[in-house]
Amino acid sequence: MQAVYFIGIGGIGMSAIARYFLNTGVFVGGYDRTSTALTETLAKEGAVIHYEDNIELIPEECLQKDNCLVIYTPAIPSTHTELNYFKEHGFDMQKRAQVLGTLTRSLKGLCVAGTHGKTTTSGMTAHILHQSHIDCNAFLGGITKNYGTNYIISDKSPYVVIEADEFDRSFHWLRPWATAITSTDADHLDIYGTEEAYLEAFSKYTNLIQPGGFLVMHTGMKMKPDTQEGVTTFYYGRKEGDFHAENINIGNGRITFDLISPIEDIRGIELGVPVAINIDNGIAAMALAQIAGAEADEIRKAMLSFGGMDRRFDFHVRRDNMVYISDYAHHPEEIRQSILSIKQLYEGRRIRAIFQPHLYSRTTDFYKEFADALSLLDDVVLMDIYPAREEPIPGVTSKLIYDNLKSGIRKRLCDKTDILQHVHQRDYDVLVTLGAGDIEDFAEEITNILNR
């Protein structure tokens, strides 16, 4: 193989693999719909990228089917011209997850799956191991603030940390040595159809753990694991499980606790990102790190120095009289946990949320659950739905959520042109923007407004 071509190279997971191949020295080309900071970074690192679905723009190095691998994301529509060109001409084509699956057969895969929490948990796991004597490779679903990248490489470690994505059943390509499952709240029902099918996919995933490997599951999940003989199963939770926390102390912008573990208890842990949900994420990450052999002092230091992941509870403004947080939360339970964490950190403060729903299908499936979660607040602004890969569904708009918010709540609908108007209205102490769409594009301008 002399070249790799990526269809959808700007995706957070795809870009990590592109960096891997750039590091090996092969030619890397790719297409994406729009130019972003991530694609610009890849171009600076050597990738040849274009932004028009046009066969004539494919680099010559990527037109030889005998020595070019084509990697594509399932989010690419079946009508994509370049995708069909490579199919019709017999190129070796693999989904992103297939490539990651190959890596879990050659390295010890430490995989993190779950409806939510997997990006932060896998980022924490990678940071702990990278800072320890164990080290690791990592392919993450977000940019780590510690390293400014979603990819870590090691020439000495036998471990690879991978975010295991359930969308399109991608995680079924993996063969983990150890895995954590953070949550199984139903999602991607446009793919799975029912909650039962969604849970069944996670059960099948647990059967892919290699004999002699490990499963670390959050307590209280509906899913029943189906592991092979020789797999050790642990449970974890904030207050119960084989791995759990004791002596939790939240206050003055700090969170500390002790880890109770079947491997080794660790006292005096402090979170570098003091958000309550990171207690759960941290326990799962520390469990995987201990299973891989990281030592107590290494884990304690890494948990304090972990800076978080971009767009995951990201503090942009943090003053006594004003706080602005952006969060990638786009599932009802994620939003619930985010809001509860903010209310706990800033008890008694006036909090405004601006939420951009992600996908028409997800809004159809969960508009009541979104309304319930957002109703924990008294001030909510709802943006138009971000379509991502989908076409509009008749009758499905943000008003479905709006109409189901609790009575008495201050609520407004807005489009992108109005969002800054709601920022300028300074009748709040804490502002949080929520969503996985392009609401993040406003973060810098919102920060500038609030700093002024």
Written description of the protein model:
The protein has 452 residues and is an alpha/beta fold. It folds into three domains: 3-94, Rossmann fold (3-Layer(aba) Sandwich); 107-305, UDP-N-acetylmuramoyl-L-alanine:D-glutamate ligase; 314-451, Protein-Tyrosine Phosphatase, Chain A. It is built from 14 helices and 21 strands. The protein has helices spanning 12-24, 37-44, 81-88, 96-106, 118-131, 189-192, 195-206, 277-292, 296-305, 332-345, 360-374, 399-404, 419-424, 443-451, and strands at residues 3-7, 27-31, 48-50, 68-72, 92-95, 108-113, 137-144, 149-152, 159-163, 178-181, 214-218, 232-236, 244-251, 254-260, 266-270, 314-318, 323-327, 351-355, 379-383, 410-414, 430-434. The strands form four sheets. It has a seven-stranded mixed β-sheet, with helices on both faces. α2 links the parallel β2 and β3. α5 (118-131) packs across α8, α5 (118-131) crosses α9 (296-305) and α10 (332-345) runs parallel beside α11 (360-374). The longest helix is centred in the middle third of the chain and has 16 residues, at 277-292. It starts with a strand and ends with a helix. The mean pLDDT is 93.
Briefly say what this structure is.
The chain has 452 residues and is α/β, with parallel strands linked by helices. It is built from 14 helices and 21 strands. α5 crosses α9 (296-305) and α10 (332-345) packs parallel to α11.
Features:
452 residues, alpha/beta, Rossmann fold, UDP-N-acetylmuramoyl-L-alanine:D-glutamate ligase, Protein-Tyrosine Phosphatase, Chain A, six-stranded mixed beta sheet, 14 helices, 21 strands
